[in-house]
Amino acid sequence: MAMLASGLIFGMLFGFVIKRSRFCMTSLVRDIYLEKRFYNIVLIVAIVAVEGLIYHGLGHMHLVRIPFYLPPFSLLSIALGGLLFGVGAVVSCGCLTSTLVKCGDGRVAGLISLATFIVTGYFVSAGPGKDLSKYLRSFFIVEDMLPGRRSIVPVIVFAVLTVVAVYLLWRHRKTHPALFQVPGQYTGLRHILCEKIWPMEPTVVIIGVLMGLAFPVSGYFGRHFGFAIVSPILSWAYTAFPARGIVGSCNPYDTMFGWGSMFVLGIVLGSLLTTLASKEFSIVLPDKATALKMVAGGVLMGLGGVWGQGCLIANGLVGTAQLSMKSWYALVFLVLGVWLAARLILKPALKKG
Amino acid sequence: MDAIKLDTKGQDCPLPLITLKNALADAASGQEIEIEFTCPEATVNLPNYCQEAGVEILSFDKNDNKSWTIRVRK
């Protein structure tokens, strides 16, 4: 019971923070290319650095289990999956985490991409398509071995990165004050918690702290991993429709119902409660073109999430902090997928000003 | 000069921003543009873009709990 409650609480906190700040990993990556916002790199690095410092620091205090061994991975499957997931995240106007947020704030578009993601993800991980997933994973297999991953070196590297990133965040905040504030009606704590759109600088630090603390908390219950989205969502389908020989994705723990399952439910609830508190909840129906894009995006994320063994969160922000080579390799293709879709889909839609 | 009115309800980011950018490309100097949207992320993206591009924000309203409307001048 405590295990399920802690997963739910972490999910709700994450849902609250990303809803309150309008944080979206896909748009951070997308706008590096589309809007030339290179500062987004600092925002992403800050999350990984803070989380990595907590993870490796607690690991050296024996409060987090840093695994001796990370499983080998297929260069082909991860590259293909990362690319497809990145494209799907742009087509869906946000990755799986944004999809969960949309489900909580009343956007039916989120439900459509979530449903198609689950059907596709189940098909290629537990249904008839799992043989294809196994086949893809049989090519170009390499070891996930980074020398010194369990040494003191990562603690030092992430500590330095954290200091540099936090300084750059502070300097940017000081030199780029927000000139326009969305008009509000509350003051004090109610304004901050229910209305104010949080600036990105404190947000990314809070996200890094939450992601780092998820390791000891879920590790206490035997799940030695951080935030994850793909497997935890699919765990609901695996529970409803049990299958044998599931081809896992981001981590080996979440194929069974547990901490991760409650975590993703918590994101939806966190988004719902935040939206209700700010009086922004309403059911928003997508037009036909948007609905079709959600279907396509959900399918691409289903294929990409399983074949790439993770999403923009689990590979892009969590595995990278763990210094998993699989996750760093996946991140390259996730980013390329997002940029490719931005180049092919979004850029042609823009007129020259 | 009539204001350009745009409806992007039901569309998520970055489509409201692309719609606004395209409208700004078509608009005459000094012309006003009003865009209604339901995407919560656009409450950040649209004002940020206007701020960076030097587009004047005339008003920003929340329409009950249904949508937002931003009115800008090129």
Helical amount among residues of chain A, as a percent range?
55-70%
- Strand order in the largest sheet of chain B: 1-2-4-3
**How many H/I helical runs of chain B?**
2
Structural class of chain A: mainly alpha
What would you say this structure looks like, in words?
The complex is a heterodimer of chains A (353) and B (74). Chain A has one domain (2-178, 186-352). Helices cover 66% and strands 1% of the residues of chain A. Chain A contains 15 helices and 2 strands. Chain A has a two-stranded antiparallel sheet. Chain A is globular, with a radius of gyration of 19 Å. Chain B has helices at residues 15-26, 42-53; strands spanning 4-7, 32-37, 56-63, 67-73. In chain B, strands 1-2-4-3 form a 4-stranded mixed β-sheet, covered by helices on one side. The model of chain B has no long low-confidence stretch (mean pLDDT 90). The interface between A and B is medium-sized, with 34 and 29 residues.
Show the helix and strand layout.
The complex is a heterodimer of chains A (353) and B (74).
Chain A: H1 2-21, H2 25-34, H3 39-60, E1 73-74, H4 75-91, H5 96-105, H6 108-125, H7 130-136, E2 141-142, H8 153-175, H9 188-194, H10 200-220, H11 230-240, H12 259-277, H13 288-307, H14 314-319, H15 325-346
Antiparallel strand pairs in A: 1-2
Helix pairs in contact in A: 1-10, 1-12, 2-3, 2-15, 3-8, 3-10, 4-13, 4-15, 5-6, 5-12, 6-11, 6-13, 11-12
Chain B: E1 4-7, H1 15-26, E2 32-37, H2 42-53, E3 56-63, E4 67-73
Parallel strand pairs in B: 1-2
Antiparallel strand pairs in B: 2-4, 3-4
What is this structure, in a nutshell?
Chain A is about 65% helix and about 0% strand.
